[in-house]
């Protein structure tokens, strides 16, 4: 991990999640730049993989990362779906629960004072949000409703010059679902954003 802008305090490969190290490095660059303009926020914590990359960058600048997730998993994480992990099942709740894993991983990474988990549905949290953001990472649900809710709910809070990162952008539908690609396209045609970086399925856009 020596090519990361900010080295990680633990072996991030042990953490369950869906992020490539090259994407993690791009998120760190974007968070380092964006945190100068406002707060940092991600939608989609899962077990904390992206939060550890971004959180390490925030910690190095004395900034914080708000990490929003209802922790009940996306559609594809539910039993019977491709990305279901039975180790993340809460039998008492009869539902997924990734929050204990997030907390454990943030503690192991020494990021409990830097990454602030917000447990709730993205659109509902966004409706009550008041702070200005300099960095926003959308990596939440992949239904059109969830992705559009993230885009519409959170991008108005992004400062001019702030950075918007979107994960799971697949231009070829054969590679994955379309909603993240569709909000990426929406951002570009809105004339409010220009693309500044592209790594695997991650796109980084700057708000004009
Ligand atoms: N960033 C993580 C992966 C996130 S996976 C990593 O680096 O590993 C997507 C997450 O989005 C899941 O944990 C799911 O619970 C959450 N999610 C899906 N729809 C959501 C919504 N509408 N509001 C809040 N969280 C949501
Ligand atoms: Mg993702």
What does this structure look like?
By secondary structure, the chain is an alpha/beta fold. It is built from 6 helices and 9 strands. It has a 7-stranded mixed beta sheet with strand order 5-2-1-6-7-9-8, with helices on both faces. A two-stranded antiparallel sheet has the order 3-4. The longest helix has 14 residues. The protein is globular, with a radius of gyration of 16 Å. 46% of the residues are buried. The model has no long low-confidence stretch (mean pLDDT 97). Magnesium ion binds next to loops.
Structural class of the helix and strand makeup?
A: alpha/beta
**Biggest pleated sheet:** 7 strands, mixed
List the ions, cofactors and other small molecules found in this model: S-adenosyl-L-homocysteine, magnesium ion
Over all CA atoms, what is the radius of gyration?
16 Å
Name the beta content range: 15-25%
Give the low-pLDDT segments.
Answer: none
Task: Count helical runs.
Answer: 6
What coarse outline follows from CA principal-axis ratios?
globular
Order of helices and strands: HEHEEEHEHEHEHEE
Q: What distance separates the N and C termini?
A: 32 Å
Percent of residues in helical segments? 25-40%
Find the count of extended strands (DSSP E, 2+ residues): 9
**Spatial order of strands in the largest sheet:** 5-2-1-6-7-9-8
Average pLDDT rating: 97
Descriptive labels:
31% helix, 6 helices, single chain, two-stranded antiparallel sheet, globular, binds magnesium ion, binds S-adenosyl-L-homocysteine
What's the topology here?
Blueprint: H1 21-34, E1 39-43, H2 49-60, E2 65-69, E3 89-90, E4 95-96, H3 99-108, E5 115-119, H4 122-127, E6 133-138, H5 144-154, E7 158-166, H6 179-189, E8 193-199, E9 202-207
Parallel strand pairs: 1-2, 1-6, 2-5, 6-7
Antiparallel strand pairs: 3-4, 7-9, 8-9
The chain binds S-adenosyl-L-homocysteine and magnesium ion.
The site of magnesium ion has 4 residues, from loops.
């Amino acid at each position: 991990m020596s090519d990361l802008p900010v080295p990680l305090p633990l072996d991030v490969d042990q953490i369950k999640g869906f992020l490539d190290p090259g994407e993690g490095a791009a998120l760190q660059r974007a968070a380092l730049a964006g945190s100068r303009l406002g707060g940092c926020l991600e939608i989609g914590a899962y077990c904390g993989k992206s939060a550890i990359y971004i959180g390490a960058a925030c910690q190095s600048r004395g900034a914080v990362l708000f990490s929003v997730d209802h922790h009940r998993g996306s559609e594809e994480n539910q039993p019977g779906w491709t990305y279901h992990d039975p180790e993340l099942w809460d039998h008492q709740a009869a539902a997924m629960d990734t929050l204990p894993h997030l907390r454990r991983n943030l503690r192991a990474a020494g990021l409990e004072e830097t990454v602030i988990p917000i447990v709730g549905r993205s659109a509902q949290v966004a409706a009550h949000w008041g702070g200005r953001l300099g960095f926003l990472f959308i990596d939440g649900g992949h239904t059109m409703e969830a992705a559009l809710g993230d885009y519409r709910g959170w991008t108005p809070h992004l400062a001019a010059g702030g950075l918007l990162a979107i994960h799971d952008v697949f231009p070829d539908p054969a590679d994955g679902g379309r909603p993240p690609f569709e909000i990426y396209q929406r951002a570009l045609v809105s004339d409010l954003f220009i693309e500044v970086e592209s790594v695997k399925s991650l796109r980084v856009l700057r708000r004009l």
